[in-house]
Amino acid sequence: MTRTCRPNCIIPPLLLEKLLRSDKTEVHQAALDTLLTTAGLRGERAVRASFAGTATPGNGRRTVFDCQNGRSLPVSALARSEDGPASTDDSVNRAFDGLGTTHDFYHEVFNRNSIDDRGMRLDGYVHFSAKYNNAFWDGQQMVFGDGDGEVFTDFTGSLDVIAHELTHGVTENTAGLAYHDQSGALNESISDVFGSLVKQWFRKESADTADWLIGPEVFTPGIDADALRSMKAPGQAYDNALFGKDPQPDHMSRFVHLPDTERGDNGGVHINSGIPNKAFYLTAIGIGGFAWEAAGLIWYEALKASTAETQFQDFADTTYQKAEALYGAGSAEQLAVLAAWQEVGIQITGVPAGVARTRSRAGNRNGSTGRQDGLTALTKQIGILTTQVTSLAKDVATLKGKK
């Protein structure tokens, strides 16, 4: 599988470009430096592309290095390893713990052996550059900036950001979703989904008590914003004079068409990810309980079954199929998947519109919530399909009679 090693950054270019218009010299300069540094990194990482997926196995061992505000990773100082004591630097310890929590989540929930499923070692680099407003995964390691202190804070402070970035590595080593247009938006969405699930798993939060926010800790207290993104309510994470309104859509009717360029966010990968994000949130809420159990497993299996150019429709169909394979045809889990995608404007291929809504209303009338009995659900689904087949047979007979 051909993969492109690029720094997958948590802060989209559209936010940094808005900071370039800030009246504050410090904010403008930090944004400019971040954009220029990131652009330079793309060239450096391109050289490493041929080595993607060939990291030395290390049983998921963690090592954190201190860049000391420099930009050269090879000369960074060792700050903490599995064999050493905790550091006196909070950034080092937060990075170390975040790497470990993400590793443990994938191992305990999905039996995955580190990012590449082959024991890949986890290297983190803190204090990268000066006032660097980003954090990224570059195909081999996780790198954290300290933020400018005006708009963004130290990026090691957000567990879901760490898990988001490491999940880009999981995606590279499974579907390899191409980083542009719909496949790229899926790539970003997968990282948001599992970034949020790692946080929920760590906190032992159920789907209905989780905040479903991505990076709520990355902004300084002076910035009026809930987070970078909201999976529960795409388009409502922030609305302020500095950034404007959150541009994420929550429905295909509001899909944002942007050029497949760096300035166009590679076709809006950080923007249109709101649509599959909302679909996952609705699925998790529809199933209930802990989101990493059923909903997370369905998405994980669908990711492994996807390819580089998988589109929204493809992924929706795959999640529906995986829900059936895991929990049965007509199961509550499968119906939750169906209803979620319908809600964001994507109809599962081959399934009549309205099936999920009809089933949901029937369940509510019977006073049922959460998971339904699999046999009852299957019986109802068969009944629906039988009615549709009977109607189709009548239509065919009528057409034959007219000949």
UniProtKB/TrEMBL annotation:
Specify where it is mainly localized: secreted
The protein's matches in PANTHER family, at most eight in alphabetical order, are given as: NEUTRAL METALLOPROTEINASE, PTHR43579
Tell me what this protein is called. Answer: Neutral metalloproteinase
Tell me if Nucleotide-binding is a UniProt keyword of this record.
no
**Residues covered by the Peptidase M4 domain:** 98-172
Q: Which UniProt keywords apply?
A: Hydrolase, Metal-binding, Metalloprotease, Protease, Secreted, Zinc
Q: Name one GO molecular function term.
A: hydrolase activity
EC number(s) per entry: 3.4.24.-
Q: What species is given as this protein's source?
A: Streptomyces noboritoensis
Q: Which compartment or compartments is the protein found in?
A: Secreted
Q: Name one Pfam family in it.
A: Peptidase_M4
Per the similarity annotation, which family is this? Answer: Belongs to the peptidase M4 family.
Its cofactor is: Zn(2+)
